[in-house]
Amino acid sequence: MRALYDQIVLLFSTPLYVLVIGAELLISHLEGVRAYSWKDTIQNFSLSLLTGLADLLMRGISLIVLTFFFQYSLANWSYSVTYWVILLLFTDMMHYWLHRLGHQCRFFWAVHVNHHTSPHFNFSVGFRSGVLEPFYSFLFFIPIALAGFRPIDIFFMYSVCQVWAILTHTEKVKKLGWLEYIFVTPSHHRVHHGSNPKYLDRNMGTVFIIWDKMFGTFQKELPPQEYEPIRYGITHPLENNSIPTIIFHEWAAIMKDMRRKDAGFKQKLMYLFGPPGWSHDGQRMTSEQMRRQEHIKNKKVPSIKKGNLYYIEPSTRVKVNKNKAG
After folding, report:
1. H-helix or E-strand containing 94?
2. Is residue 191 within a helix (H) or strand (E), and if so which, with residue range?
């Protein structure tokens, strides 16, 4: 049955992918913009293929695990519109937490970082997936099985959600009006792929942006007059972007940190399970530390003009009484 569901998703999604990628290439050509590179695109689909192989290896195990928990489900659902709507919301919410863990725990970031290594942002980047993620992602769906949703249906809904996720990887679609309040849009996901401090670890929903707004990880895309342009990729780009390096570079960095002689046992655990960028000696920074540093750097800068003290900000200038300025 799962194979049938996969074929259905593949049957409808493949022509859609060909259409949108072709349209994006054409628009980019007409605009004189180089949105794709051969090497990056080949890497994207190669990583997708490797992820598919890992998923194939784990398919039986994941189905057995979810079926086991489904036997102890707390509800008995019948197929209906309500069933599919709740399943969609539940699956999307659990994937939000899977995704969030991949950004907040270095052990899981070592897997998810594959997806963020491209300096480009186009539809093909949506296929640049975490190769090792299938080995544990299904564990996040156990609560859904316990809630009475059939494992086969969970996998099908997850595949449907991934189609939407791929379609949010583009710069060609701008703001989408009222849809921005409910769904993850290309604008939201551009923020997610930004390596700018304000944008790091933000907008981690797949289909619905409501989870980010509920759980404090939402950030809207800001216009140029309010913030700097988005820089895609990771904060420290890879010098060697071969496929093995893309997959294993963060694991190598973790092992290097774990072998540090100036770090104690608890500190080594933090290098493994703490937030990405954490360091015991301040040599690196987490996303929150980078945000704080950026905030301090962008604080009001004093400037003297004609005997009056002004505070200069990017978008405004406020006059302040010089006698109270200290």
Report:
1. helix 81-104
2. helix 186-192
